[in-house]
Amino acid sequence: MKAVVYRGPATIAIEDRPIPALAGPRDAIVKVTATAVCGTDLHPYRGELPQFEAGTVLGHEFAGTVVETGEQVPYVVGQRVFASDVIACGRCAACARGMHYHCASAGLFGSSTLVGAAVDGGQAEYVRVPFADVVLHPTPEDVSDEQALFVGDILSTAYAGVRAAGIRPGDTVAVVGAGPVGVLAAACARVAGAAEVVLADPDPRRRNSPVGRVVEPHQLSQAARELTDGWGAHAVIEAVGSPSALRGAIDAVAPKGTVAAIGVHHADAAPFPSNTAFAKEATLRFVVGDPLVVREPVLALIRAGLIDPTMVISHRLPLSSAAEAYALFDAREATKVVLTTTDSPPTATGR
Prior knowledge:
By secondary structure, this protein is of the alpha/beta class. It contains 11 helices and 17 strands. This is Alcohol dehydrogenase catalytic domain-containing protein.
C-alpha cells in the first residue's frame, strides 16, 4: 500500500508499506477513502518537535470502510466508518470519566510517541485501528466521508472549545486564529447562539470568512470592546497554540469571561499576562478535543444542516500529492487539504 511518511523537517515521502494486519481482538483494518492534513501535522514538518521519529506514517483524520475485524469489534466488512484521532481503551477509570486523553493506553494516530506508543496514521491506503470498538464510529448514510473525518478531530475540537467556554445566546465571541479550527469554532459559536463573532488572523488571505468579521490580531481586543460597549468578549476561543495567541485572548476577554485554549501548546515556558487575567477574574481552560465524548452531538449538527465542515476545504488532492499538500498548507496557500485514495472525492450514499 501507499503511505505518507515523515522523513524529517519539510520532508514528506510516499512509500510502499505492507498492508497492516490485526494485532488483537479489538483491532480493525480500515481501507481509507478520505484523510486530511491537520495543523498539528505541521509541527514536526516545521521541525518544532525534534523528538518526532522519522519513518512515522502521518495523519490522524480519516474515514473509510472496514475490511477486517478482530473478534471483539462490532463492525462488518464494507461498513463505512470514521476514526477518533484520540485512541483510548474505553474501559479504564479515566475513560469511564470521559477522560480518554488520560487513558493509560492513550495514543494519537500518526503522531510518533508524542502521546503513548506510536501508531501508524491514516494518511495511507489502509490503517490498523486499535480499540476499534471504541475508536471507530459508523458513518451515517447522509454524512459524507469528508464530513465524517472532521468529526474525528477538528470539528469536535471546535465544538468542545465552544462548550468549555460556556457560550450563551446573545454572547459576543472572539476567536484567535481564522484557520480551519478557528472557522469551525466560530461556526459552532453561532450555533450556540452567539450574537456576534469576531476572529483574528495575521494573514490577509483569511480575512473573508463566512462565519464572522476577521481583523488583525492587534485589533481583536478593540473590536470586541466595540461590539460590547467597552466590555470585551464574553468568551474567547484560542485556536492557534502560541504564547502570543494566548495573550491576545486574555486581552480580548471581558471581566469574568472564559478563554478556551484549543490550540496545541508545547512551550515549556512562555510569558503570560497574569496581571491582566487576575484583574479580569478570567477563567482559562485548556481543551483537548475528544471526539469520543462529543462525536454524537457533532454528527447531529451536520445531519441537521447546521454546520457543513467541508466549507473549510480549499484543496482536494490524491494521496500521491501529499508532499505538495504539506507545502501548500505550511505556506498558507491552502486552508484545508483533503487527500483521497480514490479517483474522485468520496460522498455520502445517494449523493
